[in-house]
Amino acid sequence: MEQLSTFQKCMIAAGRMPAPAESTTDPKLDKPTNTMYYDNKLEGNKPMNLEDRVSAQERRQLNSDVRIEELYRDMTTGIKQLSEDMATSSKQLSEDMATGSKQLTEYLGKIEDQIEDRFNKIETDISGMKADIVTMQGDIAVLKEDMVSVKGDITSIKLTMAKNHQDTVQVLTQILERLP
Question: Which end of the chain offers a freer environment for a tag, N or C, measured as fewer CB atoms within 10 Å?
C-alpha cells in the first residue's frame, strides 16, 4: 500500500476522499487481489461471503472512527495549546506594552524636565541681559550728561580763549602804539 500524507488521511477520515483500494498484484496468480476476495491459493480468488464483507466494512468503519477520534483529540489539544499560547503571548505583549509605556512616560518626563531647565536658564540669561541693558542705558545717560558738561566746558574755554585773544590783541596793539 502506498504512503498517504496526513492531509489525505484526514480527507479520507472525513469522508471527503475515497480510500485507496487495498489491492496488489500477486505474482504467483498474476491476478489482482482485493480485500473483497479470499486469497486462497488452492481455489484461486473467490468472492467473500456477505458476513465477511460486512465484517470487513465494520472494521473499516471502526478504523475510520478511531482515526477521526484521534484527529479530534489532536485538533482539540492543538487548539487548546494554541489558545494557551495566544493567551500567554497576549499577556506578555500586554506586560511589554505597559512596561514600554511606563518607560516612554519616564523618558518624556526627563525630556520635559530638561526642556524646562533650558527654558529657565534662557529666561535667567534674558533677565541678566535686560539688567545689563538697563545699566548700559543708565551709563549712556550719564555719558550724555558728561558730554553736555564737556560741551559747556569747551564753550567756556572758547570764550575764555576768545577773550584772552582780544586781550592779547589789545595789549599788542598798545605795545605797537607805544613803540616809535
Answer: C
